[in-house]
Amino acid sequence: MGVTWNAVLFLLGVLCLSATAKPKKFEQRQGGSVVIIPPNCDRILERETGCITSPNWPRKSVDFTECQVKVRVPTGKRILMTFNNFTLEGTNACDDGNNYVEIRDIQTNRHDRYCGTFHPFVWLSDSNEVTVIMDALSSKVFNRFNATYFTVDKPPNYECNRVFIEDTGMYANRGRHSNTYSEGNKCEIVILAKPDKRVTLAFTDLNIQNCEWSLKIKDLLTGRTESICREHSKIAWTSESNAIVVHFHNDERNIVDFKYEVNERDANRSCSHLLLAFPPSGIELHTPNFPQPYPSNLDCIYILHTRLDHVITLNVSEFVMQPPRKTERGEMCLNDFCQIRDLATNRFSHLCGSYHNFSWTSDSNEILMTFKTDHLLDYTGVKLIAKSVPRIPPPDCMTITRRDDSSFILTSLNYPSDYPSDTSCTITLRESPDRYVVFNFEEFELESSEGCVTDFIQFKSGTSGLFSDRICGSKLPFSVTSDSNEVSLEFKTNDKNQQIGFKAVFTIIQRPIRTPENTECSRYLTEKSERIQLPVNPDWPPIEGSDCLIVIHADPDEKIRLKFVSFAVSDLDSDKDYVEIYDIVDGESRKGRYTGHLSQFSWTSSGNELAIFIRDENEISSVSFIVDYETIPRPEKGCQLLLTEPSGSISWPFSKQRDNSHCNVVIRSSPHEHILLTFHTLTMERGVCSEHSITIQDVTTKRQDKFCSTLWEFSWLSESNEISMDFRINTKSVAKVQATYRFIPRPKVSVFNQFLTSGKGTISSLEHNRDDIIGKDCTIYVQIAPENSVLVTFTDFLIGEKQDRNRQTITCTDEQFLEIKDLTTGRTNVYCGEFDLFTWTSDQNLVAITFRINTFPTYNVFRAAYLSLSRVEGCDHRIIQQTGIIKSPNFPLPYSTNAECRYIVHSEPGNLVSLNFTDFDVQPCEEDHVEVKDLGTGRMDSFCGLQLLFSWTSDANEVSVTIRSGRKTTGATGFKAQFRHIQRPLVRDCYIRLYEVTDIEIPDFTVKDAKHVECFFYIYTNPSNRITLTVDEFDEVFNCSDSGIQVSDLATQRTDTYCEISHSFSWTADTNELIIRVFASKDKIPRMLAHWQLLTRSDRIRVLLEEESGEISVDGTNTYQLVIRTLPNYRLVLNYFHTIEEKHDCVDDGITITDSTTRRSYIDCEFFNGLMSWISDSNEVIVDILRDEHATKVEYTSVLKAPPSECNKVLLSGSNNELETTNYPANYRNDDECDMIIQVKSNSRIQVVFTTFWLEQTTAMGCLHDFLNVTDTSTVFQYDHSERICSRHEPFSWTSEGNSLLLRLHTDYSIAHTGYLASYTFLERPVYTTYCNKTHLGPNGVIQSPNIAQGLPLYENNQLCFYFIKGKVGENIVIDFIFFNVELQTPCERDYVKVEDVGTGKTSIICGQHQNLIWESESNEVNITFVTDSTHAFNGFNATYKMHALDRVSYCDVTLVDESGTFHSPSFPAKYPNNLDCEYTIIVDPHHIIQVTFQKFELEESPHCTNDYVELSSRPTGEGTSQRYCGKHNVIKWNSTTNNAVVRLYTDHIVTKTGFLATYKTHLIEAPQVNCSRTLGGPVGMFSTPDYPSNYDNNLDCVYTISLNPNEQKVLRIEFLDFELEPSLLNLCSDFVQLTYTSHDLKLCGQLEQYIFITANHVVIHFHSDGSNTYRGFKAMYTSIAPPPNTPTIVSATLPPHCDLEARRLTESYGIIHSPNFPLYYPNNALCRTVIETKKNTHIVITIRFMDIENYKLCEWDSVQIFDDVTGRSSEPLCGSLDAPFIWKSDSNQVTLLFKSDEILARTGYYGTYAAFENVEILPVTKPQRVTTPRRVTTPRRVTTPRRVTTPRLVTTPRLVTTPWRITLNRPPPATLQTTKRPSSIFGFGNKQSCWGYFC
Fold first, then answer.
1. Which of 1002, 1014, 920, 1003 is nearest to 961 (CA)?
2. Closest listed residue to residue 241, CA positions, set 227, 226, 258, 223
3. 1510 versus 585: which is more confidently predicted?
4. What dihedral do alpha carbons 67, 68, 71, 72 form, nearest 10°?
5. Measured on CA atoms in the order 885, 890, 895, 896, is the torsion positive or negative?
6. Residue 1859 contacts by C-beta under 8 Å, 6 or more apart in sequence?
7. What is the β-pairing status of strands 299-305 and 273-275?
């Protein structure tokens, strides 16, 4: 219908537009005046539909006087006009002087005159004729309108018809408002309002019984129609336009009673609306610009219409308008306001100001909202949601009774009798927006069901529209608070199980005031838990001037717990600013009001609802807090108690609640207090925690503990102001709880305050800034389980002033202190000062630690850890005396079984507790033991069994000793121990505890301005061991009165003090614990590097020998352990003699000798029948002698050691058999001393063969400058078998009688030569008899066959005799066989005499008969072997021997002084003689140099020119370089660097050549200047930087050119023996050495160690120094060698390893290996594999010469490791640095080096060389063959050993023998041999006359 109506209107408008004629003006005069009438203006319209427009429509009308249109339709019709457009300019007064339109019904004369502008409107005539007149007399020309009309039937003339044109009216078809009642008539009521109005109908009563004749309401403009039937009340209907019509059938049953009014139509289209439909979610409405301020001068109208059976609810979320004004009649909304009115009931609210969230629900289906503003202040306005909700019928199952002005009583129907069944009703309470409703249910009993599906009540919020949970069953008193001003309550029952129902008092309460400046702060919370924060977030405005109410609602069976996280309210005026908390069930009787800045606190309600009220009246907001809440169950049957008094007692079960199995006690203090609970009794029958328990919970922190029965008195402290105690018991059991409580002050808020409850934890003041703790009492509480005490361990402590050596204690002040307090017993200690470790143990389970500093110190700090310490029942002792004795229970009687007893020894901070167990018998170990524990560090040891004397010293100030026994009874007596307190070193002293075998090194430790410093090391092991301390390095000090090292055994108190230490040494303790004290009288303590090892204590008889020499004899009835110790700088020489009768098992008989420092040991159980010798590496030796019923004699003496040097060696049977001086064949080092020990088994002796030997010449007083001292130590206590050797010698040998040799090389600071090259072998030691197997040492003597020595005519068969003749070095031996008769056979194979020169290998085998047979050796030692077979005996031999000195030829020395000349080798051009040592000295004028030219040159060829050679040098010694030549050369030219040149010719004892012919001449040098460039030649030579070893000068450029003869097919091998230049910066070298050869350039700088490489036959070395730093420079040696086979001529010195797992193999016989990027830093995350594979039947020697690799533990991070690919043997992983080169020899010809690095911290890496050597087959010893030779045997003189073993020079192993896991990182400091306490032994430098060899 509506669509059709609108369509008709639209078609009519179109027709009006098309029918408009073009305008034609004309004039018509009437009575002298002119009336302007436009064309088609005056007309008559008689069609039933048509249109009426202003002239010229739709254009503006022209000026005209009057226009009249008549509309006439058939009789019985009415005319309905619709003005679609209407605009007449002019005033609003529609009089004759203005423009207007007048519409008049011709028959009834009803007319209306309109002007101005209108929305579309309608006009309905009463008859069939209408006149429309338009006057346009004003000057305004914008005048137009457009109207359409159509006819409608005229209703019958019934009395019930009405036409209303007034603004208000009423209509009723019967009753007091009845106009006329006509039965059966169809009535029509028309209401016509002005065009700017709309019509509202309000039905007070409406009942249309027959829906076929329903009442219809129609809007005459829009056609909107509403059909209504049935009974209705309080309904309304508002039109969209100005006219409506109502039709209904006037039946006697129908009732139509309404009022109407007209309201303004939308004057402002932007904010006025008629809303006719609602989506399910509602419609959001708000003021313009919301949330920005609304505009001024607004007049907005909203009409909301919904279904007739619905009402409208407005949920207002924001309402902020201009506040009301105060008038005489009170506050009134005079400016801006919002009015809400129900159009049916006329109920309205006139609102302004600010409101919290509220709702407004209509009585009917229509609401009128008016919003008006003035031109003054603007506010944010209003925001709401409008919803259509069904109407609720009046309740019929509940009753309401007024109690007073603001409260009512609500009960279920029939209360207190049962409520009716199967009923449902709802009550709705609607209060003004500034009110809310509280329901307090005093009694509640409904049928219970799961989910409350049967009988229940349910609340619904009018504001949010949300439903509460259903409530049913039986409930304790509870409350329900509405969240706004409207709430509804539904009560529903089923047809079963009716109960008494409920009784509730609901109260209407004023809501808090809200100011317009603030956002909404009141809240209604129903979640189980949530956080509340004010302000809500930092961006929200504060709440100043507002009152906030926060209501928290929980289920009826729950209560609410608040936990304030933060709280800050200004306490300047507590009446204006505060927060109140109260329980809604209890009302405000227990209200708490809070102000100020409060720590976290809690508040727990009694009922299910509580309120938080916030008042903030300050201009500047001062209220802010964060609070969390949660709901918790209420106790069963209401058994609960609230305690708020400051102290009290609790006894449970409660007297009135004995039948309750569950009760709850809440103790609440103020937020400024803690609650301290102390349980004196806590016992429960059959204490099962599931049935009997007390649960205590801190309400704020939720910390809770559950307790059953306990034997201990204990305490429990809350962290906040409220605790909850849950008591649970089986009512049939017995329980008893006695406790007291008290409130104690709560520390002020501090970031430092903590509450710790775990079994262990840490505490530190360093976790906070000093600003946070200065001037505050910072408190930490530690609470643990009742059965424990609290152990607090302070690991770092400095508060206030520090102690010093003159003031060990200080007095604490109130300004700076730390207080520890047992809160149960009150025991308190206060500490200040400086400590690094101490402990404090509480009496019970609760401790408070308070820390305070009031000043701003530079350093006030402590760190601590705490843990739980279990209490021991019945035997728990605390001991605080300084000294005393601890005994096990009943000692010395047996202790009890199944027992435990503990002793805690307590000392003050800064002390240690030392226990000496003098008696100890605790067994069996399976059950019984004693546990000793350091309470500070937690170090714990358990002991049992029968123990020797031992000690145990704590790390801190408290020790626990606990004995535990099992069920077995053994009669063990327990223990007795003495204890004493030992003052610890001050914190600033060095103090280290060691419990595991490890290195010991004094840390980087400096005490400024100190007169005396100390460093302490405490070393402990278990009682079954003793400790051996080895000091590897120690800075030498010379004032033993106040500097040195002190070592003490803690149990026996034995103490030794040492200084002037230059060698590593050892010290073995008597028991299991020792102290090392390193002290000095300066601020820097001496550096020390040490390690320690364990020795097992046994039942052997232990003898300690500390004299400098002595002897001891022991029988064989016991086992012995001898500890022989001398001073640190000495070594021990031991000789022992042990006789046995026959071969035996080594298990039963034997001697083990161990060096305590190097751990080198020797086990001898197959004793040689004679003296055995052993030389230690250090000052202490341990000798273990097994019990075998044979006597043993041990003699020992001390020998001063050579200074530390890398040339010191210990050579054993498995060692490399080569000996050579350092730098050989170059000159040895000056000012050096080396000790070399050769040690073999007791059944062997040692033979050393020197192939070359050249030391400084002897003097008239003997070898005083450079010499080698060789000592046979096996004869040291019988006779002197030693020799001091110097000068130059031909090959010779030196053979010991026993199994050990000590060689010492000494050089002074001046002249140096090439030194020596030797090899040593081990020979079987012959068993000496009276007539056979003898050694001859004298200058002459007799050698006889055994039979002649015994006076027998014939020798025996099957004899083997050895004769050893030994002369001095430089002598040979002449043997005269006066008589010789031995069985003859050719060759000599049966009986014979074999004579062998040990040094040269010259050998003769003699048999037959001879007279005066002379045999002369070439060296100083001869072996004679006499062999007979089993047949034929002869007379033997008789011989004498005599020593002769060997002199070298020196007649060839020549001095040349002419400017030129010629010289040659002796006998030239014939061959030169052997054994020459000639010097040709050429001296010319100053400022001249000498050029020597060799025109002819041929000498014996030898590697490195070691046999025959010419050596060229300049004098004085050291100027320039020396060069050595041998072999054959065409021409050699050489230039000296000074005016003094020396040409030295040296020949050995074999092989001669033609020699040389040379000329020389001089060259003038213009002026002395630095000219360091050289041209070098020859097969071998040396060169160095100027002034080496002193620092070179600045701005040098030195060029060294080395060339070889290209025809010789040789290459240069260059070795930098020393290299130290300025280090590189940013990989750039300032000072450098650059090597240029072929197409290669290599630049070096920094430090290198023996850097070797092979190049071509020509190289240029350029040395450059800049103008800044200078260093030592370099020293280098070059030699010519044959090119390595199958390799290129050039081997790059920077050949990188391959960093992958498929690396190619290196096959050269010699090469260089190094880490990637060397000498720059190696990369991170590298895995580099270098594979070396040389020729078959060779092995590889790898020498790591330099190493700088990151060092950690067992080289876990970065390392290099060497593997033999065939045998699988490998080296240890290497890292750190080296004191000396590391040498590793492979088993096969294939080796892999694996280098790895991790992701951080790179270093320089490693550098080394490798060389391949042929394997030497060791042949078995066979019986020599006889030869028939004349008196001189013509076999070659060099038979056995070559003069020079051609293996590369290998630097020996480091002087310190280290365990695989230990790498010394620092180079040992230089040291001198000075001592003030020398041993008076035959090895010393003392005044005793009995000495031998060099050691005199």
1. 920
2. 223
3. 1510
4. -150
5. negative
6. 1091, 1159
7. parallel
Cβ-based burial of 1136 (10 A; exposed 0-12, middle 13-18, buried ≥19):
buried
**pLDDT (0 to 100) of residue 14:** 47
SS (H, E, C) 497-512: CCCCEEEEEEEEEECC
* Cα–Cα distance, 240 to 1890 (Å, whole number): 144
For strands 523-525 and 546-553, give the pairing: parallel
- Name, in order, each residue with C-beta under 8 angstroms of 241's C-beta and a sequence gap of 6 or more: 119, 120, 121, 122, 198, 219, 220, 221, 222, 265
What pLDDT does residue 488 have? 93
Buried b (16+ CB within 10 A) or exposed e, 1094-1129: ebebeebeeeebeebbeebebebeeebbbbbbbbbb
Strand order in the sheet with 486-492: 424-430, 486-492, 456-461
E-strand stretches of 470-619 = 478-481, 486-492, 501-510, 523-525, 529-534, 546-553, 558-569, 577-583, 592-594, 596-598, 601-604, 609-616
Say how far apart CA 190 and CA 651 lie, in whole Å.
Answer: 86
Extract the tokens encoding 1017. Answer: 């090391």
Percent of the chain clearing pLDDT 70 (strictly above):
84
pLDDT of 590: 72
- For 1156, the 3-state DSSP assignment is coil
pLDDT of 160:
87
Q: Count CA within 13 A, CB hemisphere, residue 116.
A: 13
Q: Going by DSSP bridges, is the β-strand pair 1528-1529/1597-1603 parallel, antiparallel, or unpaired?
A: unpaired
The reported pLDDT for the residue numbered 226 is 92
DSSP three-state, residue 213: helix
Distance between CA 1652 and CA 396 in Å, rounded?
A: 115
Q: How far apart are CA 1430 and CA 1438, in angstroms?
A: 22
Cβ–Cβ < 8 Å for 1287, 1257 = yes
State in Å, rounded, how far the first CA of the chain is from the last one: 144
Pairing label, strands 456-461, 523-525? unpaired
CA neighbor of 607 nearest in space, from 502, 697, 475, 726 = 475
**What H or E segment, with its residue span, contains residue 9?**
helix 2-19
**pLDDT over 90 (residue 871):** no
Mean pLDDT of 46-65: 78
Distance between CA atoms of residues 1546 and 1561, nearest Å? 23
Cα(1680)–Cα(1684) distance, integer angstroms: 12
User: Residue 1626 phi/psi, 5° resolution?
Assistant: 55, 40
State the pLDDT at residue 1612: 84
- The residue type of 267 is A
pLDDT for 1197 beyond 60: yes
Angle at 146 between CA 144 and CA 148, to 5 degrees: 160
Place 769 in a pLDDT band, splitting at 50, 70 and 90.
low
DSSP string of 1022-1040, one letter each residue? -TTEEEEEEEEEE---S-T
SS3 content of the chain, % helix, strand, coil (to 5): 5, 50, 50
What pLDDT score does 252 carry?
81
1876 contacts: CB under 8 Å, gap ≥ 6: 1040, 1060
Tell me, letter by letter, the H, E, C secondary structure of 145-160.
Answer: EEEEEEEEECCCCCCC
Residue 1689 has what pLDDT? 34
916 contacts 978 by C-beta, under 8 angstroms: yes
> Dihedral sign, CA of 575, 577, 581, 585?
positive
Per residue in 1029-1057, pLDDT (tens digit) is: 999 888 776 666 778 889 999 888 889 88
Tell me the pLDDT tens digit for each residue of 1373-1408: 999 999 999 998 888 989 999 999 988 888 999 999
Q: What is the pLDDT of residues 391-441, one digit of tens each?
A: 888 888 999 998 888 889 999 999 999 999 999 999 999 898 888 899 999
Query: What are the CA-CA distances from residue 1187 to residues 323, 1111, 1190 (Å)?
Result: 115, 19, 8
